[in-house]
Amino acid sequence: MRDEYVDEFDEDYAPDDDTPPYWFPGGHLPDDARKMGLTHNVPDGALLDFAGNLDGAKPLHRITAWVLLVIFGLPVVFALMRVWYAFT
């Protein structure tokens, strides 16, 4: 019986699917956002993509997440305060 030469380095390491790499823009959008038609090109999708790129292990990213929470939370607090003061 003849032994055939098998090249152990002859493998195809290309990805099996045609998905873009994770570092491409819009790669961190949730599936529900993609189903709604959001991409990284529209303002809401860009914000979701930006927030999806934040890493909780990095201190600057945590500070950025808290700043975003304050920026988007303060208008709600002010609206609730106006409603409260209107009825009291």
What key phrases describe this protein's structure?
3 helices; 88 residues; single chain; mainly alpha
What does this structure look like?
- This protein is mainly α and 88 residues long.
- Helices cover 51% and strands 0% of the residues.
- The protein starts with 30 loop residues before the first helix and ends with a helix.
Question: Could you outline the blueprint of secondary structure elements for this entry?
Answer:
Layout: H1 31-35, H2 43-53, H3 59-87
Task: Give a concise summary.
The chain has 88 residues and is mostly helical.
Q: Estimate the strand proportion.
A: under 5%
Radius of gyration over C-alpha positions, nearest whole angstrom: 24 Å
Number of helices: 3
Which percent range fits the helix content?
A: 40-55%
Shape: elongated
Biggest β-sheet, characterized? none
Low-confidence stretches: none
Summarize model confidence as the mean pLDDT. Answer: 83
User: What's the helix-strand series?
Assistant: HHH
Distance between the termini: 96 Å
Compute the number of strand runs. Answer: 0
Which structural class should the secondary elements be placed in?
mainly alpha
